[in-house]
Amino acid sequence: MTIRKNLLILTFWFIAVRLWAQSHLPLVLPPENRDFNASLSFLASDWMEGREAGTRGNFMAADYIASQLQLFGLYPVGDSILVNTEKRAYQKGLLISAFSYYQNFELIKYSTDKADLAIVHHTGNSESAFQFSPGVDFVCKSPLNGTEALASLVFAGYGIAAPEKGYNDYAGLNVKGRIVVVLDGYPGHADTNSISWKKLGKQFREDETSPEKKLYTAWKQGALALIFVSPSDLLPTVNQSPVNKDVVKSAMNSIKSEDPDYEDSDFALPGDTSLCPIPSFRINSRLNSQIFDNSGINLSETEQKIALTFSPVVKIMEDTKVRFSVSVKAESVQVRNIISMIPGKDTTKSILVGAHYDHLGKRNALIYNGADDNASGVSGMLALAKVWSESSEKPACNLIFASWTAEEKGLLGSSYFVWKKKPNSAQLLLYINLDMISRSEPEDTARKQLSIGTMTASNNLRKMAENINLKCPHPLKLDLWDVTGHTGSDYAPFASCKIPVMTFFSGFHSDYHTPRDIAANTDPEKMKNILKIVNDCLLEMISNIHE
Predict the structure, then answer these.
(1) Total-model pTM
(2) Element spanning 368, H or E
């Protein structure tokens, strides 16, 4: 009787397990420290020479990442390799062609070869010209192609067009065919007690005030060039980083001032028609004087007036012209993304986990190791690929694991992928971005802060993140924000295609974009807690597809 009873219990247990297995995914445990520590340290080592896009160190990093993905058994889904038809094979029920882990493409690397700038004053019938020295009086950010012009000046306040915020320096101002002069910053940035600060606040800086956006706005208004000025006597440091990350990162520049200036070229994808074709100049106090001494504009007083009144101060200066010419040197640079996949039961749908593996490289004897930015994201991506590859059952949809190059050059690796693949939200259900997930802001003394960015319509993803975090043994303090209008990391090209995104980021720190961003300064425990949330989000998304 006992034997029969035990057999009956065993039979019911076996049936229950089989039924559960048919309706649930097998458990995929989140990565542990051992799953990412070695990769992070190796990618951030001096051996990788800072992993700058197009350099030897960047190619070595790509080879290492590809080798790890191959070791985990993920399929390569980069460039197709031409092979004979008979070499195609069925693998695990999926007909595949021969692919590489690499998605190779070309960038244009360009920089200013020569720049001339002169101020021309007209008084009655007389004309006087003052020639200035590049690198001393001004620095130039050139467009991809050379250009030159002689045109009158127009002072356009802060050069911001944000009518939806109640502020627009260009309202009623015609700058077409002119050279626009604008202040650094934004209304009220220097006085948190001002009317402007109270109306705009810190978030406005992050949304509207990057030099790139001001230049783009001036171009769209018809300007021939843009000149940045400041009440300070110091020539502003420029081009420390060509990265097109959220403007909040520029707030770290004051902390970075103790480090040597980081100089770099600009990079572009061939044929990119969105590139701004006008140059920008940053000038010192000597050039400021030549422009403003007889204009009736005092820059310090103008900043204060705008801050207190929340009203633009603009002026067309017909009697003062600028003559400039810019020539450019350019070369082709070969780069590559790394793309791999765990095939799903439904191969028409995918979830993509990505992280950029490039950093700033080295300048002279200094190596910018980029441990947090972004060896942390890449090693996290690899750790997730490892634990999911160890699952005994296919996920409900494809899981793509990718590592982008040239993020620091303007999100160019992820942009190329999106341009080449043209994904849509019916095929690509979610893009998860991991960028800087192993440190904390100085204010985050408890090391609990985690920023998760999603699109406006993705309320389901925000709720999912909140619920998952609350169930964690060590919940983090979530900062849920809207990525709409931001271009801070590789989520931006996907968001522009209406692909739902979740971008994970643990905070800025004083080592950001300096040689001090090394593996020894990372926080493995915080990174492990973040990866648990990411992994649980993947499980939740897969579970919903499965059901």
Answers:
(1) 0.84
(2) strand 366-368
